[in-house]
Amino acid sequence: MTNPLPPVPPSHSQLSSDAAALRSSGNDAFNKGDHLLASRCYTLALDQLLPGSAIDSLTQQSSVALDLSPPPPHARHLLSQLLSNRSLAFLKLSDHAAAGSDAQLCTWARPGWPKGHLRLLAALDAKGASVDERRTAARNALLACPGDKELEAKEMGYALLESETCGVAGAGGGAEEGIRQAMSIAADGKDARQGMACGDVGSAYAAGAFGLSKDEARAEEFLRRGLALGDGASARVLGQLMLGRGEVEGAAEMLARGAGMGDEGAAEILGGMDEEAKEKRRQAILQLKVMAEGGDERARGMLEELEKEQQ
């Protein structure tokens, strides 16, 4: 990547050649609104850590090229900060492509740093990337930075945009407005109702209700987010989806989680499953007894094993 930056004028030649000091000078320029000078300072600082050819190589070869030396491991912290800062400076200059390139390099240099991923998402937002591209980037960011609230909010926001792009089918009136409101709350990481809203949206997708087309995969995305935020109803609906797929053991565990979180519906379904299991066991024992009385030694042995289990 060769950024089209004009040479630094002689008036700025007093800037230190030390990368950290250059970063500080760039920050000062940025805070004063001189984003072009800030980008030049960050570029000079980056040149102290990596030659321009190495930056080009990073762009062409992806994160594998980060095994280049320099920079040593201890310098990667500063490298990621410089790339993040220059990405923001380019964004302010409306150079969205350069901003995205620097942000991508930043995520490669320091994968577990949320700010680099947020810079990339900001660049994608600014250039009007597709919702699918932005959501994919957000998902990758969460794989590298699990649990980060800002990234989770961004990913949920893209999920909302994706849902709106797919269209809330004409449910009409309050139903359509209600699900849109739930989606907005589900995307708001600062709203205390976020978990419940995620559960509501997930339930609507699971049932194909309130104007949403039935979509089990999307339902699970919202329900699992709701569960992570402490919504017991999300666990109940997830358990019901698992039951529908025949995943009885997993469904029981999920329903037990919901019941433990105070969801009465989950407790009721779990109780019904227990009664059904007991009835199936009773019917099986009766059948085995009939077979044993008819001389089936294998059935007699199975009955003896069941009796031992009950003791």
Describe the structure.
By secondary structure, the chain is mainly α. It has a domain at 1-129: Serine Threonine Protein Phosphatase 5, Tetratricopeptide repeat (Alpha Horseshoe). 72% of the residues lie in helices and 0% in strands. The chain has helices at 19-31, 35-49, 52-61, 76-92, 96-109, 114-126, 131-144, 149-166, 173-186, 194-207, 216-228, 232-244, 248-260, 264-293, 297-310. The longest helix is centred in the last third of the chain and has 30 residues, at 264-293. The termini are far apart. Residues 1-16, 60-71 and 167-173 have low confidence and may be disordered. Residues 1-20 are annotated as: Disordered. Keywords: Repeat, TPR repeat. Residues 1-10 have a biased composition (Pro residues).
Key terms for this structure?
15 helices, TPR repeat, TPR-like_helical_dom_sf, disordered N terminus, Serine Threonine Protein Phosphatase 5, Tetratricopeptide repeat, mainly alpha, 311 residues, repeat
Structural class: mainly alpha
Cα radius of gyration in angstroms: 29 Å
Proportion in helices: over 70%
Q: In CATH's first tier, which class of one domain applies? A: Mainly Alpha
Query: What share of residues are in beta strands?
Result: under 5%
Determine the number of helices (DSSP H or I, runs of at least 4 residues): 15
Estimate the mean pLDDT confidence.
79
Largest sheet: none
**Corresponding CATH architecture of one domain:** Alpha Horseshoe
Low-confidence stretches: 1-16, 60-71, 167-173
User: What is the CATH superfamily of one domain?
Assistant: Tetratricopeptide repeat domain
